[in-house]
UniProtKB/TrEMBL annotation:
It holds the Pfam family DnaJ. Keywords: Chaperone, TPR repeat. TPR repeats lie at residues 151-184. This is DnaJ domain-containing protein. Gene3D superfamilies: DnaJ domain, Tetratricopeptide repeat domain. It comes from Limnoraphis robusta CCNP1315.
């Protein structure tokens, strides 16, 4: 299992901050702890998220040095549409999983798009985030990690739509998330929770 897989176990994008790792683990541990959930699959999930958490504790960087879409930050960013955002960090940011099939130009595009996607998700600018990630996925269709970002973006938008009581649209985007990355177990768990919330709102 590589580093990106450990982040996915916690439902996070690669390079998420230490604070985001801790927050996600606390939430998932409460959900799957054997003392609180008697389902045997929950026990397996608890073991998996605990293993991921222990691994990421040693490599995840504090929020000031990392990018995390799930944790609010007070970073000032450019508002120029569809341009890579320039964000200052104190140390070199974590490298994304390198795809040897990508050219240097594609790798740079991926890195810049990742930064911008993090900021768009952080500020809940979902239509722009979706336009960005769909354009990137069309430009670099062979990259598995980009497809995972696309699915996560759909899921986050679906969750926001549930809060806004736009239930049919939420259902569409949650289904798109599963269709985009059908083998991501962490994503399935999050989408199942969203569907349960959607049914409560109905």
């Amino acid at each position: 299992m590589d580093t990106a897989d450990y982040y996915r176990q916690l439902g996070l994008l690669s390079g998420a901050s230490l604070e985001a790792v801790k927050a996600s683990y606390r939430r998932l541990a409460r959900l799957y702890h054997p003392d609180l959930n008697s389902d045997h699959l929950a026990r397996e999930k608890f073991i998996a998220v605990t293993e991921a958490y222990k691994f990421l504790l040693n490599i995840a960087k504090p929020e000031a040095e990392s990018f995390s879409p799930s944790e609010p930050q007070q970073t000032v960013v450019s508002q120029v549409p569809f341009q890579p955002l320039r964000v200052k960090v104190t140390r070199q940011e974590p490298a994304l999983k390198r795809n040897p099939q990508l050219s240097e130009l594609e790798q740079k595009l991926k890195q810049n798009s990742y930064r911008e996607l993090q900021q768009l998700l952080k500020y809940q600018r979902f239509p722009r985030a979706i336009a960005l990630i769909e354009g990137l996925a069309e430009r670099i269709p062979q990259d598995v990690e980009i497809r995972q970002w696309q699915a996560i973006t759909y899921q986050r938008f679906g969750r926001a739509l549930i809060k806004d009581k736009k239930l049919e649209k939420a259902r569409i985007y949650l289904k798109k998330a599963l269709k985009t990355d059908p083998h991501n177990r962490a994503l399935w768990i999050e989408v199942e929770r969203d569907f349960r919330q959607l049914e409560k709102v109905y």
